[in-house]
Specification:
By secondary structure, the protein is α/β, with parallel strands linked by helices. The chain is built from 16 helices and 17 strands.
């Protein structure tokens, strides 16, 4: 199937061709015709599947097919809500990229930056607004935006918006926009909360899922490296330096942990930067730009800050700490192996995290191969300590299972791809 067969205009096809794309991804094949028909849509898609273009292209098509009639400033006709600043910026970039040959205007609005430049753009009139919920409601409160003419509402990464506590803000927005509109909801998972939200918002929505929920992408090579908590940074530096990795995205659980690890890597001679919710938007944007351009080798991020990071052919993702919620593991490793490219995701796992690892393997329905580096073998005398469950604030205890059968590689971290032996499937040891 080609993009030409999907019913898109010549100007949109030209923009797609400019990006170097010739064939639509599965979610684009399914979503674009349904959206062009005006259907409400629930789209289930993991990150890296092309879902942003899957709703951006038909959204732009619908706007040019039904141009604004009348004089005066352009009304906001399409509203796209996203959970984070980074994702909002990424989606807006797609709107600009695919709409470059169209006479449509758009703006991205999010917190952490001055509200006045956003006001000036809104006052001039725009067709499309990409926004985070909180800053959007700031503009509503200051009467700098009118949502009474919205024809298309997109909720992108709805599961993450609910996880981040935006449900009340979303409901406020829903009470402001017109009742008659097209609603597009995209989510990596369809929890009961998501279904409940959709039931009260959508009319006979079409449902498409391009992959089984919570399945890690097949283009990502996954591996676990057992190591004591106190030696994780040492092993990480050895892996980066020994293999001459030039672009590595590293995940930590906490903002403080991200700062500390970035500083430690710097002392090891590895250029890095940390991004998290306490960083200003300017600092986050600069760090991401430096990472993309190769000025820094390592970007250390928390889950929320990394949502929306879109880097072509990112080769390495490292879980310095496993996430407390198994679904977040899928989102993390989805930063690599995008658009059919191969990627590598490795997790440095200490004894405290063995229960979290089991939860992840249960979710993705497979065992992750384990490789222990010689010289970094976990100390069996170290007892597991409880770690915080970030979503619920509860302590999560961890018991070390007897006879885990973790494999041992007789090699150094340098050149680990060629020299290590994997322990393979561990299901027989449970």
């Amino acid at each position: 199937m080609s993009f030409e067969s999907l019913g898109l205009s010549a100007d949109l096809l030209r923009a797609v061709s400019d990006k170097g794309y010739s064939e639509p991804t599965p979610i684009q094949q399914q979503a674009i015709p349904l959206i062009l028909e005006g259907r409400d849509l629930m789209g289930g898609a993991q990150t890296g599947t092309g879902k942003t273009a899957g709703f951006t292209l038909p959204l732009l098509q619908r706007l040019i097919e039904n141009p604004h009639q009348g004089k005066g400033r352009r009304p906001v006709r399409a509203l796209i809500l996203t959970p984070t600043r980074e994702l909002a910026a990424q989606v807006h970039e797609s709107v600009q990229t695919y709409g470059r040959h169209l006479h449509l205007k758009s703006v991205v609005i999010f917190g952490g930056v001055s509200i006045n430049p956003q006001k000036q753009k809104l006052i001039k009139g725009v067709d499309i607004v990409v926004a985070t919920p909180g800053r959007l409601l700031d503009h509503v409160g200051q009467r700098s935006i009118d949502l009474s003419k919205v024809d298309i509402l997109v909720l992108d990464e709805a599961d993450r918006m609910l996880d981040m506590g935006f449900i009340h803000d979303i409901r406020k927005v829903l009470n402001i926009v017109p009742k008659q509109k097209q609603v597009l909801l995209f989510s990596a998972t369809f929890s009961n909360d998501i279904k409940q939200l959709a039931n009260g918002l959508m009319k006979d929505p079409a449902l498409i899922e391009v992959a089984r929920s919570n399945v890690a992408t097949d283009t990502v090579k996954q591996v676990v490296h057992p190591v004591d908590k106190g030696r994780k940074r040492e092993l990480l530096s050895a892996l980066i330096g020994g293999n001459d990795w030039q672009q590595v995205l590293v995940f930590t659980r906490t903002k403080h942990g991200a700062n500390r690890l970035s500083e430690q890597l710097g002392k090891d001679g590895i250029t890095s930067a940390a991004i998290h919710g306490n960083k200003s938007q300017g600092a986050r944007t600069r760090a991401l730009a430096d990472f993309k351009s190769g000025q820094i080798r390592v970007l250390v991020a928390t889950d929320i800050a990394a949502r929306g990071i879109d880097i072509d052919q990112l080769p390495h993702v490292v879980n310095f700490e496993l996430p407390n919620v198994a679904e977040d593991y899928v989102h993390r490793i989805g930063r690599t192996g995008r658009a059919g490219n191969e990627g590598e995701a490795m997790s440095l796992v200490c004894v405290d995290e063995l229960k979290l690892l089991k939860d992840i393997e249960r979710l993705i329905k497979k065992d992750i191969p384990s490789i222990t580096f010689e010289g970094y073998e976990p100390d069996p005398s170290i007892k597991p300590e409880p770690i915080q469950n970030g979503r619920g604030g509860q302590k999560r205890g961890t018991r070390r299972p007897s006879g885990t059968g973790r494999g041992k590689a007789r090699s150094n971290p340098k050149g680990h791809r060629n020299r290590q032996k994997s322990s393979g499937n561990r299901s027989g040891n449970r």
